[in-house]
Amino acid sequence: MAKFLNTSGVSYHLEELIKNTLEKLILISPYLQFNDRIKEHLVNLNSQKKDIRIVYRENKLHPDENNWLAQQIGVRTSICKNLHAKCYLNDREALITSMNLYEFSQVNNNEMGIYLTKDQDPELYHSVLMEAQRLLTISEEIRVTVQRVDTPYMDGSSKKVVNGVQAMNDQRGFCIRTGVKIPFDVKKPMAMEAWRKWSEYGDANYPEKYCHFSGEKSNGETSFSKPILKKHWQKAKEMHVF
Q: Taking the model in full, what pTM does it have?
């Protein structure tokens, strides 16, 4: 049966829900900021290659936290512009609450929540999961980055970054394994599925098929450690900040 929670109950069940994720975790919160314990759990889940999805409306991260989140390559983030819901769920549990993720452990706030499990409330859990998946579908997937605002390029133009977030349709690159378009990032030159397969062995020098900068076939001259063909390296540095 679904259970009512007060402030301390919400904080407890939220941490336990994240920590006990088996395969999939969805965090939905308008404002995004991470308590140290939440960060530790997410790092642990990410190292185990769990499917982690975060939907939010506004990024409240400090630059160092942006850097931390950008390093969690398996964590996928999406922006929903009119998001007001706060909901957290894993494979077996769900928590619907008034608590934003950044308010975790702030016991001076008065929060409420409803906690439920898939085993005891299967229909209710399914309804929560379907709505969470709908929000994922209508949200814009983004890549969190930390970059200097209005950094000038060689031609005097500048790169616009808002709240440390760069939209997926800006600064396009190419997956070095599949050739599909992805955000340009020399530290993350693969699409998610390709990265998951590559990470099984993690050979940074394994020959790949495409140039991350131009998208042309590389005939094995690119790799995770060297994602750009030598002939394009200088031009890539002029066009991108890395």
A: 0.61
pLDDT digits (tens, 9 = 90+) for 38-69: 989 999 999 899 999 999 987 666 677 778 88
Distance CA 175, CA 66 (A): 23
DSSP states along 4-63: EE-HHHHHHHHHHHHHT-SSEEEEE-SEE---HHHHHHHHHHHHTT-EEEEEESEE---H
Measured between alpha carbons, how far is 129 from 27 in angstroms, rounded to an integer?
11
Given a cut of 80, whether residue 199 has pLDDT beyond it is yes
In sequence order, the 6+-apart residues with CB closer than 8 A to the CB of 4 are 112, 113, 114
What CA–CA distance (Å, rounded) separates 80 from 138?
7
Taking the CA atoms of 216, 221, 225 and 228 in sequence, report the sign of the dihedral they define. Answer: negative
Q: What b/e readout covers 98-122, taking b as 16+ CB neighbours within 10 angstroms?
A: ebbbbbbbeeeeebebbbbebeebe
CB 39 within 8 A of CB 68: yes
Task: Please give the radius of gyration of the chain, using alpha carbons only, rounded to the nearest integer.
Answer: 20
> What is the identity of the amino acid at 241?
V
Residue 157 φ/ψ, nearest 5 degrees: -80, 180
Structure tokens of 13?
């069940």
